[in-house]
Amino acid sequence: MQKNVKILLAEDDVNLGNLLSDYLKAKGYKTTLAANGDEAFTLFAKDQYHLCLFDVMMPVKDGFTLAKEIRKINETIPIIFLTAKSMKDDTLQGFQSGADDYITKPFSMEELLARINAVLRRTQSQTQEQEEKIYNIGNYVFDYQKRELSMNGDTQKLTSKENDLLRLLAQNTGKVLERTYALKAIWGDDNYFNARSMDVYIAKLRKHLNKDERIEIMNVHGRGFRFFIHD
Predict the structure, then answer these.
(1) H-assigned helices in the chain
(2) 181 FRET partner, CA 20 to 30 A, in 12, 15, 146, 223?
(3) pLDDT score, position 26
(4) Is 55:15 a contact under the CB 8 Å cutoff?
(5) What is the chain's mean pLDDT, rounded?
(6) In angstroms, rounded to a whole number, what is the distance separating the alpha carbons of residues 82 and 33?
(7) Residue 228 CB partners (closer than 8 Å, separation 6+)
């Protein structure tokens, strides 16, 4: 997995930074070390990375601020925080900043490597799912690229919003598709008017899929929707 994987490491402790960098390079990861958040942001803007490993407490720019700025450029790159704190509030703030995981100092190199590999496996799996173009939904075949929903030779053409929303539902079959996530992903904003619009499109998709009684798009109060294909 580590072949050609590029990691951006930001750690202001020179000794720890060099130790981590040398260890990750020895394990086959192409690792670039930054001494603070500003330097890390400059490096990120100039190159392509597969994972970010950020210390939280850094001079010039802390890890939380750095993560928020990077999320404005790239919403999907995995970010792991290194933190000397284990307080709940700090952990929560880290995940609100866009973290995929965090590891509390002191930690073993083996634990760090396991966390990195786990996050990479998860994010690569999600990327593969997102790149899928054709989905089997009960008795229907959904072709995302062609914006077509077919069943027994009968094909319906979907609008772009229906198409994007059905793909998100299909990718999250059996799980809750969070309303806020879907609104931001498709409409770009989770305001009231877009939320009402999404409800209309959910109703349209239910109608498109109603020839297979096993398919259900269920409202999950206060959260979003759950897409089921019953046995």
Answers:
(1) 14-26, 37-46, 63-73, 88-96, 109-131, 160-171, 179-186, 192-208
(2) 146
(3) 94
(4) no
(5) 88
(6) 14
(7) 173, 174, 215, 216, 217, 218
Paired tokens of 135: 């989905």
Q: Among candidates 30, 32, 35, 43, which has minimal Cα distance to 11?
A: 35
Q: Which tokens in the block code for residue 190?
A: 């989770």
Domains, the chain, ranges and CATH?
Answer: 6-130 (3.40.50.2300), 133-229 (1.10.10.10)
Helix (H) or strand (E) holding 148: strand 148-151
The sheet carrying 148-151 orders its strands as 134-137, 140-143, 148-151, 154-157
User: With contact defined as beta carbons under 8 Å apart, do 28 and 3 qualify?
Assistant: yes
Per-residue model confidence as pLDDT tens digits over 118-151: 888 877 666 555 556 789 999 999 998 899 999 9
